[in-house]
Amino acid sequence: MDPVISLLLPFLAALGIGAVLGFFGGLFGIGGGIIAIPVLVLGFGMDQTLAQGTALAMMVPNLVMAWWRYWRRGPGGLGRGTLRVALAGTLTTYGAAQVAQGINPQVLQLVFAGFLVVVGLGQWRRQGAEAAAGAPPSSRQRLMPLVGVAGGGCMGLLGVGGGLVATPLLTGLFGLGQRAAQGVALAMVSPSSAAALLSYARAQRVDWPLGAALAVGGVLTVSAGVALAHALPERRLRALFGLMLIGTAGLLALEKTGLL
Question: Which residues span the membrane (predicted)?
Fold first, then answer.
């Protein structure tokens, strides 16, 4: 094979993968790391740590772009609450990452996969009931930083999944519409992922050229995913989100049990 082509193929593959992940990240308000990390390990031969750092290089710009698009389109009234959720999530991510060093990651991720199945089934069953859009009552809004604690704890322990945890909590416990919840989750995960990327970069566990290619592909398609999210009915978007959670859980379980 021509040396130039052999160098271009991984770059073009990364662009394509990043484009797919960026679209679904915009649609569901997630970073795509749960899918990107196994792809980088299995398809690009990376070790787990390098794959996680490289996936973060893709996730940070995608998450920021998606959050900005949701913020421009989404309902208002959540400025202070969103800031508190984001701050709680960022601080918890850092603390949980320190705790995770002494815990078996395979056990954690299998537990997390089971959690996603339960939440995903719940989202699917709730598709017949519209969630109320807009800000929750003030009594509940004061508790919204707990969503940041839950999402940040997941991201710190597992390196992924902050938005997957935050969104169903915001819809189920705080009555937000699916789109509004995804926007708040993005505001929480964006600074958390940036802090995590800084940590991986300091440890030199990021493949920057590959991560940049993934990011470019993702940024090109995030807006299309956000646009579709706002075009779909709330019930359908919630049902698709539930199916995505169940599928993600299956992928995570297969990867961690060595079957993928």
Answer: 12-44, 50-70, 106-124, 145-174, 180-201, 208-231, 237-254
